Backbone:
């Protein structure tokens, strides 16, 4: 079924939830094929026999794209070795997301730079949901930075990884709901700030993640102080104009998205509404993604498609 | 096991989740007994044969306390009839929560007024969680009202009632998470504002509830702009001082509560932390309750205990 | 992307869980298109404007296939009207599953009869899981009918339909598990018996369904008394031989399937193991399907593909 | 509130789910107090500072009862040391459940032997549910052992323990359902057989446990071949007669129990119905317990109460 122009790709660190999601998507993609996958812990990943990471070093020239799902801290030096050996790399760790050495791969923003990029830093799941909600208002100069932007987000448990930890057991998580990283100490905050404040100028941003008893999905409820009152339609117009023609972004007019609208899809769903009963104008923007798809593996494939000049949504359900 | 001073009580509208929780708690309470319960839809509520609401009108003088779990709008006139007939009433509907005709029964605030009260309006579940978090900072004059107070709250599905609705089916709610009443249109906002702003002066409050795929519990993540920087210990001190000796409030020092800490208990668990990386000081206070207990039936019993001069936590697990 | 030989199809009763799953699958299918959908309750089903059922009667000749997801009892007369008007029909109700007027559409059995069939009765979800597990052993003459065949099955909540019922509310189903139809009173029993005992002769079959707090999936644990001892490999060999080349059936050698192996797929996963510590030989066969896919909408499309002489798994993920 | 005859008790291996449930129940019990608890992994168990297991050896004479929640294999030698030192012991591990050295503590059966017992082996969770369902029919001589007894049981995840394992992560278990120990290889089978077949004579018993995506509870669906046809009422009469006056057993007349009826309670709920459409008579008995309460910690306290000649349900909600 694959034609003879299938591009071989490599997946490093394939046995976590992101790696497995990526393998699954790549297996359905008509234009690429997994040449090899590495894992330190599992011999077989969804039918692909894995090799140790060390075995990858002799094989960079065999593949047209390398995906690194290695842990934060471990990934950067491996990405560098692959790059030096001539490979193109999409790094799904956080190592390069604030670095000049990589293109920040929020596809809808990065698109022009991707075809020539050697290394792409795939965005974090929380920042993807938050930035897609905020960037249009920032670019339009509508955000009032004298008041804080408050981002409350909740993620499914797959976002916490596949390593066995007591606090992630079913009997601990089910019927519970908790905030974590409260007080702006989550490592995703700098990624949000770093890509937003160049547009808004200095701004107070409060980001609070929560752990949700679902398997996948992120819902971000983003409260945005604005310079002037905007009706719902005007707020929607800002989003619609910013994302006109975008295949992976859906603005829900007159509504608010939930996880149901996005799971298993490479999609950001957005809704916006003005806040009533306040003396100074604010909007609430709700943004939903699947943390494993548009928040990780799906966006990586979307980036790969642009880098390889394939149709952008090839192999993806948007 | 019950002695001969057991007080007979009535429960109106007993077949919903709140009514049933109340019946269950009253059945375990050593000093009261359910004399009659009304329901329009169920003949038997947890072993109590129910009567139609109409049958209650001849029986007000038989009971030492009436609990109304009737729907909003339906409750107020029934409460009035009972009051006129000499009964004492705790109204769990929202009808009287902003009315001069009832004591607002947030027990920790209302305690002095309860022993003489004829009618008590039991607080809503969301307002209980939010007000217990905010009132100490408001009373201490610490809240900076030039910036908005942002309350993000998530409730278990029992908070939406027991009437069959498609959007509350298991197959709709499981693995989903959604915001509702976005933009300050939820009917609980005036209850929060009405009991907070007398202490703070006019303030912008943004309240956004969410529907959580759990059966019970509310977690409120409350972002509070403050006049001056407070370390974690100073924030905790404000809460500890305000709630010293309170049997149903737990301040978690150095931590943040989750639903696990409060379900099936008549308890508010609180944690507070300063927000880092902002130019003007803020605190995040997290408040957890069981929506059916401290958020409804349990607080009603706590109020009854004070009204009847019984030990305040009699029959309650705090 | 669709070519000009797209076959128009109709979906009757499109707004339940099965109807919606079917619409979703048909929308992704390259060779067919939804010409019209009917619903009494929803104006729009996943982007398709619906018409009342009455409007269908003038349109039977417009479509190359009619899918009826109408309720049991309602479906049969409509199917008959469509058939008389010349339409081919796949009936997803239970009305015709034991009738001579339709081909019983367990695809793996019915395949030869499908290309010429006018009306196909799509099997029930529980019978699909049970029969696929049992038929190979029945055909091989291995089942000992002097002892009962015991089928314990558990289904996700979508199997109970999308009509609002109190007992299907999230707050009722979550953290619960219950048996229903205990004592062989479930309406699916005759469908299992009717298609099994022609092969085995009279047999005692005990079928007990359970309601599982998950959204989709059926797991059937089937205990089969056998005439002679079979090792695991021999039991697997019976299944492998029976289903050699079947694209939608997976025999898990040396293992036992779970819901995770089948949800969102048009697949039956099977495992078998001999029962130890018994004096007379038995096998336990475990069978897993997605109740909405291979148990309903997916199998309907698999049947349609064969009826229309399309590739059997076109538009399906197996 | 505690009087001066409080009995000090010890809990060994307190940090698992069973140990913690036990600590929680003991803390609410009016007649006993936790003198010490041991844990190798946690310094604090629900407010009790723990000591290493080694420290227990000098303290056996300090306590009136020792509860061992130690792992299988580890428990027996410690229990023996405690016994030799004169302590009375309730062993919640499986080590002594088939041993002459301990009374098998299914309270409803063991009651006469408990007051003088030195060592009690607390039954396993699955055997408790199965034996309470089967023993009355076995004692009445009603079971037809020429056909197999088939026990299908499903347990909440807390039954699998609190050690971090990948297969118990929320993201693995949620929305899944699986059989395990298929083919009579689960270690609980000999416990069921060993306590049942002395009454029935040799019998084929097929026991298949399943892992349920809930936190607590076991539902056992038990198919019992019987010597003669019994109507529902006759089957219920067997259970009612066997358990007349039992405070912790509820026979649901005309119904079938579910987990909802038993969680957080020290209760077995039972229902029975004849199987229709079979040529030889069978009953299906459904039995529900909370695996952590009547299946472990609650039954241990029930046993302790009898051993110490306290009211049998003291400190328990039945």
Residues:
């Amino acid at each position: 079924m694959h034609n003879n122009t299938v591009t071989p790709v490599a997946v490093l660190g394939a046995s976590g939830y992101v790696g497995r999601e990526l393998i699954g998507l790549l297996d359905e993609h008509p234009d690429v094929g997994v040449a090899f996958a590495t894992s330190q812990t599992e011999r077989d990943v969804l039918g692909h026999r894995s090799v140790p990471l060390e075995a990858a070093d002799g094989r960079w020239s065999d593949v047209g794209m390398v995906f690194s799902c290695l842990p934060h801290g471990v990934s950067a030096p491996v990405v560098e070795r692959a790059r030096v050996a001539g490979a193109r790399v999409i790094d799904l760790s956080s190592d390069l997301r604030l670095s000049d050495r990589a293109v920040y791969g929020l596809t809808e923003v990065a698109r022009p730079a991707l075809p020539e990029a050697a290394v792409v830093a795939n965005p974090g799941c929380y920042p993807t949901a938050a930035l897609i909600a905020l960037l249009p208002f920032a670019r339009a100069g509508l955000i009032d930075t004298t008041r804080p932007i408050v981002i409350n987000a909740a993620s499914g448990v797959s976002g916490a990884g596949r390593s066995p930890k007591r606090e992630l057991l079913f009997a601990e998580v089910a019927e519970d709901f908790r905030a974590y990283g409260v007080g702006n100490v989550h490592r995703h905050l700098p990624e949000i700030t770093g890509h937003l404040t160049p547009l808004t100028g200095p701004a107070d941003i409060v980001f609070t993640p929560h752990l949700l008893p679902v398997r996948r999905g992120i819902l971000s409820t983003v409260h945005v102080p604005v310079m002037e009152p905007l009706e719902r339609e005007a707020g929607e117009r800002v989003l619609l104009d910013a994302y006109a023609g975008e295949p992976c972004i859906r603005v829900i007019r007159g509504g608010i998205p939930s996880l149901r609208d996005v799971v298993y899809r490479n999609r950001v769903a957005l809704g916006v509404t003005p806040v009533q009963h306040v003396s100074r104008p604010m909007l609430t923007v709700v943004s939903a993604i699947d943390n494993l798809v548009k928040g990780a593996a799906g966006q990586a494939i979307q980036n790969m498609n642009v880098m390889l000049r394939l149709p952008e949504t090839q192999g993806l359900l948007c």
About this structure: The first strand of chain B starts at residue 7 and ends at 12. Chain B has two domains: 7-123+295-307, 125-291. Chain B is about 25% helix and 25% strand.
